[in-house]
């Protein structure tokens, strides 16, 4: 069958090639890094709330991760068994990821704060987890106790339940580790062994668990290292949730280079620049909403003379990036923004804007919102609905193949078959490609399901949002959503987001001004048919978001379709 063609097939420069993990197993790989850098700082944790700092050397990180692996195997877990992680951005989460690889086990994180208990239970049961690690990172103490009771009841009989926070539910991880000697030998993950299951956001129905092998993760890591020209001297300032594909794979990439992970409990707009400067950050990864938020700190950076000179670049992705805001960010802070593209199913990044572009091509890439060129260990293409490759500029679905593509969806063979056709993973993202500087750059136009279909015409929300942000700098963000319409089926509504400092009266006045200007035809590069007819002003806090700060457009559409303040309706 065509769908059985190898999804890990990779063709570069007309030749088939493949990624090979550079050691017999992960234990040998990490052990060699530790041998070279035993006393080097591997990971730093910044506790935003407690204003505390903790660090681990490579030798300490290796020892603790091996002890955790030995502890789990002593408690009955065997090759390929899965365990769940329910905690925020902590050093223990990183240790658990490495323990899975060192003990030939599989880590399954879930979103501690935003996953409802039903989703946590689903992931625990669907994964067949045989152990659970948690931390009391909840804002509501009572909720923690109630949910832990339900989760532990769902674990298999006698399955270990560890807590990394003292005096709380579950067995103390630190006490258990203190009683666990460093193992002499451990069965460590090999190239084709699964090491990670990360569940998709599950905006429709149950989330799907993407199974990632050692080869999947480190092929992507190798592509990122080459793309970013990463060295052992880099310090990666990490603020996005580590249960997500972004920070989980970036953290493993950093460790694979003998560099330093600086892990913040959470993102803080007021502390991002001071902490990044203090830690000597050279690189970070953010999303568009954080980019917009950080611009509000520009005056403080200047007034306090916060030193950002060690930053080489800041990576951005996970959602469309407004070009006008990106240009303003680059001009304000003097730090290049480098956009990339990928999904959970392909282990984070399969395309990225090259860091060696000349000034003119980089500016064009920013202005046109390029997601970059395919990275070293992936093939990216654009197809029509019939599976035919499309020419330059034609809009279609982005498809990916190569060793970065997941092994499949856990317990869902039919869904895996549907997602992988002709040996390519169907992303569900719409885009096209253009030639910039002699290289094929990819451009994302949004999800197929997010298209606005007005009178049978497909309209990309991204083009509308870019136009609004370019023409109306008072906006912090803008989102174009389709709302029910008796004549066209769907009409375009612009959700306008202003800075938090603006009063309700100012928001209303500015929204009315924008609505009037757009209706007069003052939205550049868009015809009247593609321009919004309705306008709603919301606060940033009112936007439904994922844990990484990406706006859930389906939820936003449901929230505003019957909004009483729709202007012009």
Secondary-structure topology with pairs:
Layout: E1 10-12, E2 15-17, H1 26-36, E3 41-47, E4 52-57, H2 58-74, E5 82-86, H3 91-102, E6 106-109, H4 117-127, E7 132-134, H5 141-154, E8 161-163, E9 171-172, H6 173-178, E10 194-199, E11 209-213, H7 214-228, E12 235-238, H8 245-256, E13 260-264, H9 272-278, E14 283-286, H10 288-295, H11 298-303, E15 313-316, H12 323-333, E16 337-341, E17 351-352, H13 359-367, E18 370-374, E19 379-383, E20 396-401, E21 408-409, H14 413-419, E22 420-421, E23 424-436, E24 439-447, E25 452-454, E26 457-459, H15 461-471, E27 477-485, E28 489-497, H16 504-519, E29 534-538, H17 553-560
Parallel strand pairs: 3-13, 5-6, 5-7, 7-8, 8-9, 12-13, 12-14, 14-15, 15-16, 28-29
Antiparallel strand pairs: 1-2, 3-4, 10-11, 11-21, 16-17, 17-18, 18-24, 19-20, 20-23, 22-23, 23-24, 25-26, 27-28
Helix pairs in contact: 2-3, 4-5, 7-8, 10-12
Structural overview:
With 569 residues, this protein is an alpha/beta fold. It has 3 domains: 1-21 and 215-226 and 262-448, 3-Layer(aba) Sandwich (Rossmann fold); 23-190, Rossmann fold, CATH 3.40.50.12780; 451-560, ANL, C-terminal domain (GMP Synthetase, Chain A, domain 3). The chain is 32% helix and 25% strand. The chain contains 17 helices and 29 strands. The strands form 6 sheets. Strands 3, 4, 12, 13, 14, 15, 16, 17, 18, 19, 20, 22, 23 and 24 form a 14-stranded mixed β-sheet that branches. Helix 2 (58-74) packs across helix 3 (91-102). The longest helix is centred in the N-terminal third of the chain and has 17 residues, at 58-74. The mean pLDDT is 90.
């Amino acid at each position: 069958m065509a769908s059985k063609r190898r999804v890990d097939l990779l063709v570069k420069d007309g030749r088939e090639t493949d990624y090979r993990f550079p050691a017999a197993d992960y234990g040998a790989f990490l052990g060699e890094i530790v041998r070279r850098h035993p006393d080097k700082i591997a990971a730093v944790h910044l506790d935003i709330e407690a204003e505390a700092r903790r660090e681990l050397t490579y030798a300490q990180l290796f020892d603790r991760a091996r002890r955790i692996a030995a502890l789990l195997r002593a408690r009955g877990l065997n090759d390929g068994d899965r365990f769940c992680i329910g905690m925020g951005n902590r050093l223990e989460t990183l240790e658990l990821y490495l323990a899975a690889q060192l003990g030939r086990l599989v880590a399954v994180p879930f979103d501690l704060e935003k996953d409802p208990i039903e989703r946590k239970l689903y992931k625990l049961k669907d994964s067949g987890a045989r152990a659970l690690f948690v931390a009391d990172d909840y804002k509501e103490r009572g909720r923690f106790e109630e949910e832990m009771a339900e989760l532990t009841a769902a674990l298999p009989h006698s399955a270990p339940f560890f807590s990394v926070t003292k005096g709380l539910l579950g067995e103390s991880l630190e006490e258990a580790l203190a009683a666990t000697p460093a193992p002499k030998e451990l069965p460590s993950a090999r190239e084709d062994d699964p090491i990670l299951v990360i569940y998709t956001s599950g905006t429709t129905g149950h989330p799907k668990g993407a199974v990632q092998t050692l080869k999947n993760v480190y092929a992507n890591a190798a592509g990122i290292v080459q793309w970013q020209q990463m060295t052992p001297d880099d310090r990666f300032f990490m603020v996005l949730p580590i249960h997500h594909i972004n920070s989980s794979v970036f953290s493993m990439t950093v460790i694979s280079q003998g560099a330093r992970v600086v892990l913040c409990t959470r993102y803080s707009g007021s502390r991002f620049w001071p902490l990044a400067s203090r830690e000597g950050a050279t690189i970070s990864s953010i999303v568009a909403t954080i980019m917009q938020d950080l611009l509000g700190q520009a005056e403080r950076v200047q007034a306090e003379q916060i030193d950002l000179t060690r930053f080489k670049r800041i990576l951005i992705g996970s959602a469309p990036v407004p070009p006008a805001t990106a240009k303003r960010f680059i001009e304000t802070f003097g730090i290049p923004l480098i956009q990339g593209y990928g999904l959970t199913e392909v282990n984070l990044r399969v395309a990225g804007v090259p860091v060696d572009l000349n000034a003119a091509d980089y500016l064009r890439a920013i202005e046109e919102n390029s997601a970059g060129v395919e990275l070293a260990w992936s093939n990216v293409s654009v197809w029509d609905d019939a599976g035919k490759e499309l020419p330059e500029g034609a809009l279609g679905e982005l498809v990916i193949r190569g060793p970065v593509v997941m092994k499949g969806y856990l317990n869902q063979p039919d869904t895996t078959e549907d997602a992988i056709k002709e040996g390519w993973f169907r992303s569900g993202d719409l885009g096209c490609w253009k030639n910039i500087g002699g290289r094929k750059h990819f451009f994302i136009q949004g999800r197929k399901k997010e298209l606005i279909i007005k009178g049978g015409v497909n309209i990309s929300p991204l083009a509308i949002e870019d136009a609004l942000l370019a023409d109306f700098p008072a906006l912090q963000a803008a989102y174009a959503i389709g709302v029910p319409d008796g004549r066209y089926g769907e009409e375009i509504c612009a959700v306008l987001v202003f800075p938090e400092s603006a009063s309700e009266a100012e928001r209303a006045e500015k929204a009315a001004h924008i609505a009037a200007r757009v209706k007069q035809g003052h939205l550049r590069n868009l015809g009247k048919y593609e321009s919004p007819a309705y306008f709603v002003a919301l606060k940033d806090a009112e936007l439904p978001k994922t844990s990484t700060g990406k706006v859930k457009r389906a939820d936003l559409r449901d929230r505003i379709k019957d909004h009483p303040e729709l202007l012009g309706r």
